[in-house]
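Researcher: Let's run the pair from yesterday's discussion. Sequence first, then tokens, for each.
Model: Starting with the first of the pair.
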Amino acid sequence: MRITCANKGGRDAGRFISISKGVDDLNREYGQLEYLELSVLLEDSAGYDSGLLSQHGVSFLLEAGPCKGANTGRVILFDTGQSAEPVLNNMQVLGKDVQDIDLIFLSHCHYDHTGGLVGILGQSKRCRLPVVAHPTIFRPNFTVKNSFCMVGMGPENSREAVEKNGGEMILTDEPLPLMPGVVTTGEINKRVSFEATPTLSLLTLQDGKKSPDVMADDISMVFVLKEGLVIVTGCSHAGIISIIEEAVRLTGVEEVSAVIGGFHLIDAEEERINKTVEALTTMNVKMIYTGHCTGLKAEAKMLMELGDRFCKLSTGMKITFPK
């Protein structure tokens, strides 16, 4: 199934990749999955009477089905929330076992995506559980907008603590295939004009001097299925349109089945929100699942413009592919 949307025009509209071509005849260097199930282990909100805990943060459990010719799938934990307790509680409620996790992926350094890392590793019985992240993930990351505040990985999740608790850091800024049909984006170096600067003003330290932090460590995951790409993001500090374009360039697959995650438009100017939603509308993305840091204004705009193609994330939600 393909959804074709009219191009609404605008200054930047013509430069965006048109998501329309099918994937059956494309050369898939990264393989193709048979199925994918995403469980929202943690998000900013949870349903009524669910027994689930919510928290400002993100954690997804991704159960990826085998590629053709492979014998088994993989279970990937995408981000770990602020702390381990709600993630572990929700795994138990949802009938998921922490021992089944084959790999942990960290989308970027922020505490609400990495805080539960060591706590979750401590519950795993694996002695060498891969933790995939960007090489700069342990750098200082802070804001001084209202007052000085560290927002990166805390000392409880230092590299030493991670390795002591059985994690094996796999640090790369390049795309990394994790299994047939699954690849990370690597660092997003090509950003569309209105996404060149992150919406959140952050700083880091280089040789003892503060400098702007452009969030180069913001990386995402791409899953290749017959119906198209599924792109999973943490906060999309690199820009959600830039991430989608990079995923298409990387895989050669132009049809995007879904984009899932936070878009960090909560503190964006109205012009950027409008351009983002305009680009998502002109692209042929079948479904947008977002929440967390996306912000009410942006979500309302998406609902109005995208209609049934928009869905708000909540803790406990399960999304499967193919539908």
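Model: Moving on to the second of the pair.
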Amino acid sequence: MTHSFILASSSPRRLALLADIGIVPDKIIAADINETPRKGEVPRKLASRLALEKLQAVSAKQPGATILAADTVVGVGRRILPKAENDADVRHCLRLLSGRRHHVFTGVAIQMPNGKILQRLCDSTVIFRQLSAQDIETYIAGGEGIGKAGGYAIQGQAGALIRYISGSYSNIVGLPLFEVSQLLRSHGEGG
């Protein structure tokens, strides 16, 4: 990077994913925004809107930097699944996802030092196998679904419950690395 690089996210997964492609932010600034979906908002639109709002919340205080913001939303049809806050949320999400196809959308917004804003939306498809009540309770007992969009983390125990993915694996984890690296590279940043 030729300028200061800021990650507008406190997600340890996003930080680790960036490190996987050799990018270490100079600063991490979590964007404090209202993430409540708007009436009638669909998952893909929510992911894009929240990424842009996170970028705008941080960029106002960081002129001249390269800033990366992202937001991941899990959707079943037009339904937006929550970021699980407790075991009941994880249970609800996994029951809904059991045996069904769903989409993981990550909106990416990058502000370049000159103020130009770049945006992308990545869409990955995931299908869980049919889950028994015991599968769900065993997963909940591991605790890794808390704080995750859709109530699961593909990079953990949920990997054994998923029978199919199409698209970017890193997107499902929380940041589509190919898209991020291509955006940065196309504008003279990144490797």
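Researcher: Give me one sentence on the second I can quote.
Model: Strands lie at 5-7, 27-28, 66-76, 79-80, 101-111, 117-128, 162-166.
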